[in-house]
Amino acid sequence: MKYSQFAGSIASLLIIGICFLPWIEVPAVHLLLSGWHGEVNEELNFGKQGIPYSFLCGLMIVLFQIPRVWAKRANIVIAVLNLGWTIKNYLIFSMCRLGECPVIKPALYFLVLLALIIQVMTFLPKMEIKEE
């Protein structure tokens, strides 16, 4: 695809931005959790999920811009890690605990969608093949 590298880079930037938006809301305790604010109390702490996303997406943006085969192959592996991290976060954040189910905000759904888009874009690099 002609614009796959650009689309993958934009989707990576959007994932970093989505980490600042609320992912879930727990109405019983009036609590909003996001990628940067995941601490409920000492016993329940989701951590700062934005740190791994920032690292992985920043690395993918750099690799999307490098026109080498090794960069495209490495980008596929990193995108798989990113997709796995996203699925893990979706399952953990959306899980019901003690009979209380959180309200899932649209940002969590967009996070999964963007991770899938990035994965597809890594499979469609624009590479010019030189014939020898």
Mean pLDDT: 88
Helix content: 55-70%
| Number of helical segments with 4 or more residues | 4
Q: How many E-type strands? A: 3
Largest sheet: 3 strands, antiparallel
Task: Indicate the radius of gyration in whole angstroms.
Answer: 17 Å
What is the domain total for the residues? 1
User: For the terminal residues, how far apart are their CA atoms?
Assistant: 23 Å
Which H/E pattern describes the elements? HEEHHEH
Q: Report the β-strand fraction as a percent range.
A: 5-15%
Question: Main sheet: which strands, in order across?
Answer: 2-1-3
Class computed from helices, strands and strand pairing: mainly alpha
Coarse morphology: elongated
Low-confidence stretches: none
Can you describe what's shown?
By secondary structure, the protein is mainly alpha-helical. It has one domain. It is built from 4 helices and 3 strands; from the N terminus they run H-E-E-H-H-E-H. A 3-stranded antiparallel β-sheet has the order 2-1-3. Strand 1 (22-26) and strand 2 form a beta hairpin. The radius of gyration is 17 Å and the shape is elongated.
Q: Quick summary of this structure?
A:
56% of the residues lie in helices and 8% in strands. By secondary structure, it is mainly α. The radius of gyration is 17 Å and the shape is elongated.
Considering the chains and any ligands shown, give keywords for the structure.
132 residues, 3-stranded antiparallel β-sheet, 4 helices, 3 strands, 56% helix, 8% strand
